[in-house]
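Customer ticket, subject: "Can you confirm the structure for TonB-dependent siderophore receptor?"

Message body: Hello, I'm evaluating your service for our small team and ran a test protein. I'd like someone to confirm that this is what the system normally returns, since I don't have a reference to compare against.
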Amino acid sequence: QENLKTEAPTQAGCAVLTCYDAAGLVRSQGIDMELQGALTENWQVGAGYTYARTHYLKDFDPAKENQRFDTDTPEHLFKFSTVYRLQGALEKMRVGGNVYWQSRLYNDIALTDASYRLEQGSYAVADLMAGYQVNKHLDLQLNANNIFDRTYYTAIGASSVWGSTDVYGNPRSYALTAKYSF
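Agent reply: Thanks for trying us out. I re-ran your input and got the following:
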């Protein structure tokens, strides 16, 4: 990305909190792949992986050059999901689950009196589901999300104006849904 918004080297005469200039240059590189399919007639599986690296090529602050940009975005993401439809007397039932993993996030915060790093280490979240096809019109499904009740941040940061901008991920939760088709 050319003309990236970068903090101006001097804030003299700035009427707002921070002044920016369009002078930065950032390069993003990565890969995103996903594979889905049926291992058997009753068993579906999906997996995906994303790698994204963004780094400064140019900035007013030469120390940022070749450093990571947007450190509150994970470099690595992995997801896996599966659903299995039972057979025989239980053929109306299905069970499944998924796992989501991501690499660490961090933000280096420089305030007037101190500098510090906010960090969320890599984490994984697992979900389970069970469904039952009552008849050709009605389908019931129970989802259990974040089954290990993992506490994690989906976003981290801080602002001298707004304070902490950390966002917690969803705690363990359950959802029962009914789908009726006409």
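A couple of notes from the result: The mean pLDDT is 87. The chain is about 0% helix and 60% strand. Feel free to reply with more questions.
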